[in-house]
Design a protein that fits this description.
By secondary structure, the protein is an alpha+beta fold. The protein has 4 helices and 13 strands. The radius of gyration is 20 Å and the shape is globular. Keywords: Signal.
């Protein structure tokens, strides 16, 4: 009975908070939790992302992001090959085992090209820059915050859409109502079809003073099918 009473009190307080806090205010509080010293704007660091997928070998990626230098590097190890893509401002460099003298056949075999390198730059910078990246130009933060129970937990939910130049997806970000930590996010291509995916975030890893989610577990919205888990760790050499 005590547990039920406590749950109802928490539930009621979350509803009350959702009714009084605006979307921009919620985002600001979450950024204060994840990046209290405003380090993201000058982020210059490296980290490791290990991806675990069903019935596939684990894949490790060494990632370097320098926002001031406009530099991005993604290095993956595949069998005995070290495959690296580097974006340095407008320049793109592709290499395998340190060699940039690559045939078109070899690049095609390993799906290695500059368009894909830029996509990875945007992907990793966006995901590991959240929730700070929600302040980027072209992001539309909806003013109304909702309260939702998702996978048995109570959340404050922020909706974000994007200008047509930036993107077409609809995103929802789920925040802990007590700490304002980001614990789930979800996106839809077409919400009426319940497509897209949701991502459960657990634990934290502090990289350059920023509290980043350590584990990201990906699932389909439509059937809860598990896809993969990304595990973040510090680069010991940095």
């Amino acid at each position: 009975m005590k547990n039920l009473t406590f749950f109802l009190l928490v539930f009621a307080s979350t509803i009350a908070l959702a009714q009084t806090i605006t979307g921009p205010e919620l985002l600001k509080k979450s950024i204060q939790f994840h990046d209290p010293n405003n380090n993201w704007e000058t982020f210059d660091g490296s980290f490791i992302v290990s991806m675990k997928m069903p019935n596939k070998p684990e894949r490790q990626s060494n990632i370097t992001i320098s926002l001031p230098k406009e530099y991005f590097s993604l290095q993956t190890i595949k069998d005995s090959l070290v495959i690296e893509s580097v974006i340095n401002k407008l320049d793109c460099t592709l290499s395998i085992n340190g060699s940039t003298d690559l045939s078109e056949t070899l690049k095609k075999e390993h799906n290695l090209n500059c368009k894909r390198a830029n996509l990875f730059k945007d992907y990793y910078t966006y995901l590991y820059g959240l929730p700070m990246k929600l302040n980027d130009e072209g992001t539309i933060i909806h003013p109304n915050v909702t309260q939702k129970i998702f996978k048995g937990k109570d959340y404050l939910v922020l909706k974000a859409t994007y200008s047509k130049e930036v993107g077409k997806d609809t995103w929802y970000f789920y925040f802990n109502p007590e700490t304002f930590a980001m614990e789930v996010y979800q996106f839809f291509k077409d919400e009426t079809k319940n497509d897209g995916e949701y991502i459960l975030l657990t634990e934290l890893e502090t990289i350059n003073g920023i509290k980043m989610p350590k584990n990201r577990a990906w699932y389909y919205n439509k059937n809860d099918k598990y896809l993969a888990t990304d595990i973040l760790s510090k680069n010991a050499s940095k």
